[in-house]
Amino acid sequence: MIDEHADPTVGDLSEGEILRRILERVGPSAALVGPGDDAAVIAAADGRVVATVDTLVHGPDFRLAWSSAFDLGFKAAAVNLADVAAMGATPTALLVALAMPESTRVSFVTGLADGLRAACRELAPGCAIEGGDLTVSDTLTVAVTALGALAGRDPVLRSGARPGDAVALAGELGRAARGLRVLFERFTDGAGRPVPLDERTLTPGERGDLAAQLRPTPPVALGPAAAAAGATAMMDVSDGLVLDATRLAEASGVTVSIETATLGPDPASALTGGEDHALLATFPGDVALPHGFHRIGSIAARGETAVLVDGRPPSGPGGWDPYRDWDSRSG
Amino acid sequence: MIDEHADPTVGDLSEGEILRRILERVGPSAALVGPGDDAAVIAAADGRVVATVDTLVHGPDFRLAWSSAFDLGFKAAAVNLADVAAMGATPTALLVALAMPESTRVSFVTGLADGLRAACRELAPGCAIEGGDLTVSDTLTVAVTALGALAGRDPVLRSGARPGDAVALAGELGRAARGLRVLFERFTDGAGRPVPLDERTLTPGERGDLAAQLRPTPPVALGPAAAAAGATAMMDVSDGLVLDATRLAEASGVTVSIETATLGPDPASALTGGEDHALLATFPGDVALPHGFHRIGSIAARGETAVLVDGRPPSGPGGWDPYRDWDSRSG
């Protein structure tokens, strides 16, 4: 006999009881004031704090048939840690706003908390979950705010690239998009609805692509490393290299020239795939790239187009736009 | 003839175009790095930052038949500004994560941005919207992160109340709950579904109650004022006075004794109503209360119950729990 009470729904418990179970999982606070008061108080030793927020919504951003609670928590943390890293900062704290149906199992909530914590531990040691909010919603939604510290350095903006700079990348591009294709092509039913994953049917390469999509591991520590090495501009590549390089080029008033030979065996996915959370950075031409970055091109004075791919303007759709791409209504 | 293109939906526009229209409305950044990069950079002059997040979800937290876009933006900002104030801090920045259906009109989004900005201007001058995130969702959801500065003072926690302290309140209690009752009793159809407001049918008092529910104006500036005056404990009263006073009492290891004669003409609503966003603070007995606070009781050594109301343990349900109260399924 199954004891229903062993895994109640969030509707069965008080907010305080759910919070208690989450806080048991997310581990010790590293803050001046951690969870439990009206707000957290986080150290910002150099008098500045980096702050970003990113949301994952069931349907457009993930499907429960494909993502475990742990995956979802891990990804929700990872994508925000990457944004902090892209400023050249080290993550210090996460705040997690979780909106979920009353029918959500508490085991799902604790799994999600485990994923959040694991992402901090693996990608940003010293960063912990320091606050959050629980709400009822028909649509499972995880909004994570990440804070970070610059350790006295200037933030690395998108606008600092200069002609002559090297363009470099940390992390792999195209895998998350390939993983998404595997999900849509192999794990949907005749009506296009997601069906549960069966990883046994996948090659090792496909498994890696799927992991890149469902549980990304952006090179968070390389953000501050790039800043320390003198990066002139940096950003998280989450909407496809061409689109994100265009943003960096527009902000800097330059042209980003990309060489596809540097992009690995699947340059098409690398150029237009989304959700990789790699770091795109520019460095003065005479700087040795920090370990973990490799050169993918160079910065030129602004020409006719913001981006050149192998010397030509890119063709076709450049990247990912959440209001145009996935079909949010079939979630 | 109506020009449909004059008010497109968010599904008609690119993310960049929607962002541009929002940023036009939210006014100048006050940050070191404002919107437009991977993250914002906010000053934290004394080496600490206060951070909190709170989410409003369509259905459980608001109904579009009752809340205008402006109201929703105002409330989403106000409830977070109140949490920063409750630490004794001054709000410095908001990050806004907005998840909305593709069918949402852009005029709704700009109205919401106007409400966010108006709340900052009215309640927390110097605080601005410095970042955010747009996502597609079937459920309109606004998650706001608020940051704040302590100006060198210690944060005022829930845990600092001591026997002999005066218990004081800034703001009015019970109005938001009365406003909610007006909505449910007067502006629902036979099936309990919300119908549009008609303010002409309301008395001035009812209009005030409705405003307290839909567009609350917490006494944000009184949070730092209380801290400067020596408040020993403080919190935002959002879940009803009895429940929130219980939390303060538990955190401080004391008993909070409340005198209902101090609570105005409707003590029942004051004791148990939610969403007032008043400030509950304790001060040493010999301190003159800062202007805007009035005494509602005193702190005693911990007795049998955490809270006493007119010397007796409170009876009945103590307050608001989002997983128990509103019916989230009828939104």
From TrEMBL, chains A, B:
Bias kind Basic and acidic residues: ranges: 322-331
Protein residues bound to substrate: D61, E275, W320
Chain residues that bind Mg(2+) 3: D38, D83, D236
Domain PurM-like N-terminal positions: 36-149
Keyword set, alphabetical order: ATP-binding, Kinase, Magnesium, Metal-binding, Nucleotide-binding, Thiamine biosynthesis, Transferase
Residue sites binding Mg(2+) 4 per the record: D38, T52, D83
Positions contributing to Mg(2+) 5 binding: D239
Positions annotated to bind ATP: G132, D133, R158, S238
Kinase keyword on record: yes
Known EC number: 2.7.4.16
Chain residues that bind Mg(2+) 2: D54, D83
InterPro entries: PurM-like_C_sf, PurM-like_N, PurM-like_N_sf, ThiL-like
Descriptive protein name: Thiamine-monophosphate kinase
Organism listed in the record: Microbacterium salsuginis
